[in-house]
Amino acid sequence: MKAKLSILVADDDVAHGRMLRTLLENWGYAVDVAGDGAEAVRACRERSFDLVLLDVRMPVMDGLEALQRIREARPALPVLMMTAYSDVPAAVEAIKSGAFDYLAKPLDFERLRVSLRNVFAHADLVEENAALSRRLAEGSARGGILGQSAPMRALWEMIRTIAPSEATVLVAGESGTGKELAAKAVHDLSRRASGPFVAVNCGALTETLLASELFGHEKGAFTGADRRHDGLFVRARGGTLFLDEIGELPLSMQVKLLRVLQEREVLRVGGARPEPVDVRVIAATNRDLAEETAHGRFREDLYYRLNVVTLTMPPLRDRDGDIELLARHFAARFAQANHKRVTGITPQALDILTRYAWPGNVRELENVMERAVILMPGEHIDARELPERLLRPAGGAPEGGAAGTGTGFGDDGPAALPGELPGDGGRLPTLEEVERAVIERTLRRCGGNKSEAARVLGITRKTLHARLTRYGGGSVEGGPGTETPEKG
Known about the structure:
Strand order of the largest sheet: 2-1-3-4-5
Helix content: 40-55%
Structural class: alpha/beta
Number of strands: 16
Largest sheet: 5 strands, parallel
Distance between the termini: 36 Å
């Protein structure tokens, strides 16, 4: 809403018009006054207003004709009609012609105030829905990747940059962050968009089945191979092959995959002659492949072959502002699928959704919204339709309960802190030592995740960072000067 909303008052009663001008200006509005309907129509054509307060009975041009002309010039401009009690039928006719509401003279000022609030709240809702529709449409154009947060804008810019190339891409990120959607977006924006996009989960098949699925097999290569079979590398010819959960690939399969990527040819199981392939490979993992390589669980040469360009999917907890957008998108989608009507999400439910850490990321939010749509008795999703885990601080009781103090320590929280504090003998700890111990304990309970620890403590991440800096170089967990590992 703008800082100062503008209202046009159209009334041939000069004294009444002046009174309304004074009243509305005292309420914080910018006000212009027109003496008849024709003057009001001219004003609306020449200047921009947020609302028109229009009398029904005026000379030169009455309110009903003025309403019609104003709506022709400014269809979205809300109009409130003013009328004497004897003209109520005319006011009702004005409502049918597009007026927002009517007020009977002499005006009830409290009713007028409420009507103005309703008009502007409705305008805000229309704009919010329009903005949401634009963002959802933009997400559809991005292959279903929704989000306006800074991390998602950076991700989308990276996708647009790398898509036209032929480079192998590694998509990294936690489970549920939408890695396949990102891979599909790269494909859709590439020169291979007209070719197939073929996906396979490397962790869902046994080694024997995976070899046959990826590379194909000859007839008689193994029991049950009663005919020649094209593998996914061949079926994805001219397009993109998406290897999901690449970190689950057995070492023996990693050797075979590396050869295909290097030689650009594939040897079927049981085959004698390799076959050339024309395919772009995009791989995805929720594991740290550099760490897996260091421990010998993933081949270093394959890692570097895959890791030409990396897309890192941000976790949902780091995407400020995207949770509401995604929640409304999923609610609308599941409402349509379940033949239900969803007109909104209550502020309490939105507050719970935005405060939760979402360890399962977008996939978890999607499941939560499906459940909420199925359970809701009316047309609004409320807090009672959300799972109980969303109502709890990490490791604690539901918020507002006896144990739900916001620390997330459960029953043995604050009482156990003094014994953890540094000190000499039986002296009482200082307030700073207590605070430091609380932060240390919370960080341990949250696995070093600072965003989650800040949520549990009821402070912002920026405030937590300031406390950690004061206690010694950005962390307290490992002593002064060390950095708490950020697992989130």
